[in-house]
Design a protein that fits this description.
transferase; purine-nucleoside phosphorylase activity; phosphoprotein; glycosyltransferase; Rossmann fold
């Protein structure tokens, strides 16, 4: 696997005309941020050696290079999910490649279900911590040389970047919440009882991605900032039916605010 990672990084490096130290993973319904990237060039996942291909509606499947906030960046427009049938090595393969390309900071975004009664649909939740409910750990198996066998996870989401995001949100009059993200395998949305359980355990939002990518990023010494867009609500007295289309619609409406925060953090950090 490590040889494949190096092969993919080498293929990209030969074709890159920029030198990004920042990467962004765009979640469900959040791919429009890619239109904000200037001086861009891109590669389809299907053209990149060893890269998986996204199968989920709303995930375009492109690796985009260019500028955001005046800085060189790379962006994944479409991620890979455990529920698609990939193993964790495949799900986190792009993050391993990012490390080989010299990425120092990773921005992650996702659409998630809110369990905190203070949350509203369309709100942005800055991720302060996570709970891992995936049945397979992304670091299971032979240890990669990018980090220790037993990596510390006391600060999975960078405190300085969170503080900067709060400052930017206040300046721009963007309402943000803080919360704990619960990562689950999917692909079913949660039952009312599951929502309540995750809330009791300390979760504020739940989704089917992000956690594996963050674990591998931290193992590789990459600092992380994450935002969840609250696209549906659950765990309350009245059960609410939710569809993938509704999740995408709610994510779309929140994109300008998330993009503003990402752009300003990149510009100032």
């Amino acid at each position: 696997m490590y040889e494949k990672i190096q092969e993919t990084a080498s293929w990209l490096r030969e074709r890159m005309s920029t030198n990004p130290e920042t990467a962004i993973v765009l979640g469900t319904g959040l791919g429009q941020l890619a239109s904000e990237i200037t001086d861009s060039y891109e590669f389809s996942y299907s053209d990149i050696p060893n890269f998986p291909v996204s199968t989920v509606e709303g995930h375009s499947g492109k690796l985009i290079f260019g500028k955001l906030g005046g800085k060189d960046i790379m962006a994944m427009q479409g991620r890979f999910h455990y529920y698609e049938g990939y193993d964790m090595k495949q799900v986190t393969f792009p993050v391993r490649v990012m490390h080989e390309l010299g990425i120092k900071t990773l921005f992650v975004s996702n659409a998630s279900g809110g369990m905190n009664p203070e949350f509203k649909i369309g709100e942005l939740m800055i991720i302060t911590d996570h709970i891992n409910f995936f049945p397979e750990h992304p670091l299971r198996g032979k240890n990669f040389p990018t980090g220790p066998r037993f990596p510390d996870m006391h600060e999975p989401y960078d405190h300085a970047l969170i503080a900067l995001a709060d400052k930017i949100a206040a300046e721009k009059n963007i309402r943000v919440k803080h919360g704990v993200y619960v990562g689950v395998q999917g692909p079913t949305f949660e039952t009312p009882a599951e929502y309540k359980m995750y809330r009791i355990l300390g979760g504020d939002a739940v989704g089917m991605s992000t956690v594996p990518e963050v674990i591998v990023a931290r193992h590789s010494g990459i600092r992380v900032f994450g935002i969840s867009v609250i696209t549906d609500l659950g765990g309350f007295d009245v059960p609410v039916e939710v569809s993938h289309e509704e999740v995408q619609e709610a994510a779309n409406s929140a994109q300008p605010r998330m993009t503003e925060i990402f752009r300003e953090i990149i510009k100032r950090s």
